[in-house]
Amino acid sequence: MAGSTTLLRDDATLRVSDTGDGLAVVFQHGLGGSEAQVVQAFPAGAGVRRLTLECRGHGASGLGVIRPFSMSMFADDVLAAADQAGLDRFVAGGISMGAAIALRLACRHPDRVAGLLLVRPAWIFGSAPANMRPNAEVASLILDHGPDKARTIFAQSRTAARLKREAPDNLASLLGFFDRPDSASFVQILADISADGPGVSESDVATLGMPALVVGNAMDAVHPLSAAHKLAATIPGATFAEIPSKALDGARHFVELQAEITAFLHAHANFRSLIPS
Question: Quick one: pLDDT at residue 75?
Answer without folding.
Answer: 98
